[in-house]
Structures are given as structure tokens and as C-alpha cells.
């Protein structure tokens, strides 16, 4: 009887250790999944922003033509997005923080007139977002500087960087992104007259 009780005690203690390790592994796996989700959203934003086109936003006016409009918590720009297998289309994209989710809205551009666009419903890109911060690099000045907002007429910033902070199950996760837009600002090299051969 004593031997049986001792065996039950040993088995119980081993089960407790096993259950504790299993809970730890589940916590680690869940934290890894959350971080991977935040990283994936960050990479998506990097790719989308880096494809920004120097085209007027639908909110532009003849006096104020904007290619990109944004502040610390919101960004709007035009970009060519994939819409299916081997097909793409020009979209006006707005990314902002609404409630506790990072949402993206795409407008289908149907011409250059301000009213010639169709807005889609907001798509939740990432949930549990506590904060997002965009910054814009102005490379036109002699000393480049990061700005908290961008509404320069007829110009894209040289780059956009951002940080996404997420709070889930009492744990904090974050990811940073960096998108270069200087290729969109690059001027075409001047054409040189070809020398004619005799």
C-alpha cells in the first residue's frame, strides 16, 4: 500500500512537471505566432508603401496636388497592387489605426478626376494594435530629416519608416519597417544626342 501511494506521488509530481512544461511551450508558441503576425503585417506595409506612385490623390485640388499624405498615425498614397493571378491595378491606399486594429482601405481609381474612385470597405490588417507611428524622410533638403507628417505638394518622401506596437494577452509585441521611395522620385536621365556614324 505504501509503495502504491509512493508510486502515485511520483507519477503525480512528474505529471505536474510535464503540465508546467507544456503550458510554457504553449505560451512560447503563441507568443511566436503573435510576433510572426506583427512581422508579416509590417512586411506587407513596407512592400505597399515602397510601391507608392507619384500620382495625385483623389483629395488633391488644383492648388494642392498631393502624391502622399500622412501623419504619425495615418498614411495615404497611390500604388499598383496585385488583384489576382498575374494581374494588378492602380489603387489609392489608406492605412490608419481605428479602434484597436490597423485597417487598410483601397479605392479603385477610375481616372484622374477627384470623384472617379470607388472606396472599398476597411480591411482589418492587424488586431490588438495599441499604437503606430509613421515618419517621413525629406531628402530634398541639404540635411535630410525625419518628419512627423507629410503633405508636400507634387513630391513623395525619400523613405517612410514606421513602428507598430501590439498588446495581446497582457504581452507587448512590436515591429519596425522601412520603405524606400527614392526610386519613384528619381528623374529620368537626360537623353543625349547619338553621334551619327559616317
Main sheet, how many strands, which sense, barrel? 7 strands, antiparallel
Q: How large a portion of the residues is in β-strands, by DSSP E? A: 35-45%
Distance between the termini: 112 Å
Q: How many runs of DSSP E, i.e. beta strands?
A: 11
Question: How does the overall form come out from the CA principal axes?
Answer: elongated
Structural class: alpha+beta
Number of helices: 2
Helical residue percent band: 25-40%
Characterization of the model:
The structure is a single chain. By secondary structure, this protein is an alpha+beta fold. Helices cover 27% and strands 40% of the residues. It contains two helices and eleven strands; from the N terminus they run αβββββββββββα. The strands form two sheets. Strands 1, 2, 3, 4, 5, 6 and 7 form a seven-stranded antiparallel sheet that branches. It is elongated and about 95 Å long. The N and C termini lie far apart (112 Å).
